[in-house]
Write a structure and sequence with these properties.
- The protein has 99 residues and is mostly helical.
- It folds into two domains: 1-60; 63-91.
- 71% of the residues lie in helices and 0% in strands.
- The protein contains three helices and no strands.
- The chain has helices spanning 8-29, 36-56, 64-90.
- Helix 1 packs antiparallel against helix 2.
- The mean pLDDT is 90.
């Protein structure tokens, strides 16, 4: 099995992008956008997560099995979040006897 040699330039560019996104996260914390603060923070966070997964975890250059495993992990995370948020949202629908 031969591994592709990845140029250090790619890692330095990725590191620079992560630093810029970190500064953007810090700057966004000082903005008052109301409910959009959460949306902006999540978009920045998802971008940083994608960069880390694709480059540092080598998913970009991995085979189909690695892509399948990463996709299965994301699917499982989505299922767990949907079940957790479904439980949280539905609380308070049934009356609870108070003493």
């Amino acid at each position: 099995m031969s591994d592709e040699i990845i140029s250090p330039r790619i890692y330095f560019k990725n590191f620079g992008a992560l630093i810029v996104l970190l500064l953007l996260t810090i700057g966004a914390a000082y903005l008052d956008l109301g409910p959009l603060n959460f949306v902006l923070a999540m978009l920045i966070s998802l971008t940083k997560t994608a960069l880390i997964a694709l480059f540092f975890m080598h998913i970009r250059w991995g085979g189909k099995m690695l892509h399948l495993a990463a996709g299965a992990g994301l699917l499982w995370l989505g299922i767990l979040l949907a079940l957790t948020l479904g439980d949280y949202i539905s609380r308070g629908w049934l009356p609870v006897a108070q003493h």
